[in-house]
Amino acid sequence: MAVVRILSRGICGAAAALLLAPAAGALNITNLTMTVAAPPANTADTLVNTGQSRSDIESGTNVSMAPSGPVSDTIGMAVSFQTRYSWLVASDRDSNGSAFTASANVDYSISFTIDNPTGANYRVDINTLRLGAFTNVDDDAAGTGTSTLGAMTGYVDGAINGTLALATLNFSGGATVSTDINQSGTTLSITDNALSRTITLRFTWTGSATSNHDENAIRMGENGGITGVTADDYPGAGGLARTQSADGHFVNVTTTLITPEASPTAMVGFGLLALALRARRTARVR
Q1: What b/e readout covers 130-146, taking b as 16+ CB neighbours within 10 angstroms?
Q2: Looking at 112-121, 189-198, 238-247, which range is the least confident one?
Q3: Alpha-carbon gap, residue 153 to 163, rounded angstroms
Q4: Element containing residue 228 per DSSP (H, E)
Q5: Which segments of 153-195 does DSSP mark as H helices, in order?
Q6: What pLDDT was estimated at residue 26?
Q7: Would you tell me which of 25, 160, 210, 282 could form a disulfide with 101, CB atoms 3.0–4.6 Å apart?
Q8: How distant, in Å, are the alpha carbons of 9, 56, 216, 222, 229 from that of 237?
Q9: Hey, is 222 helix, strand or coil?
Q10: pLDDT digit string, tens, across residues 205-218
């Protein structure tokens, strides 16, 4: 019986050690990529710097915050990242005559894989915002400028998702003036427990800047290159200074563990504890 007590105490100690052992790193985001669609789906960068109708279309992508994982298998632990698509559409019509419009399309995708080796339940929160400025520079007494930032459509794994949509914005100015672009969308939440899941997000919109003698631009994080034109430059004209790196279309993704799966170590610990309790009951009966 003494031997049984010793064994049961040893098993209990081992079980406690396993149950209290910290969980191994689990949740992570890998294979993060940004892909711009081929023209004309995403308009190619084009600078027209000669003649009476000049324009500049620019775009770029970058991961402004890399995934922060992996994280331990604990409720509330999260892995986050942020991406940025920068963009510019600018026009300047110098001569008399009809107005001139520069137009551009945006079409790009973000793909990432959620690694969840324990099979825990997690929630993916996705939100987006468009930041920048409409700018008109009055360099002609009779001049005007207008801009349209088209509605944004968001897709998840190839299907349109209305939660990621943003509305159309319009701008009109006859003076030297800038107006903020500050649009935030509704958070999309996805719950899953797949061991590995790849999610692909896609965003599309159009935009145009029209000049009727005035300079006009939509600035969302790209600096313009039209000679002698300031509407497309940072920090900006019209009494509104902006930081170039802080403008663009931003996508924020956070994956949070909401129900952890019992780790193999913990399962072994519970098994040992059950054996210890059974051994003690057997010893008492004897």
Answers
A1: bbbbbbbbbbbeebbbb
A2: 238-247
A3: 9
A4: none
A5: none
A6: 84
A7: 210
A8: 77, 17, 11, 15, 10
A9: coil
A10: 999 999 998 999 99
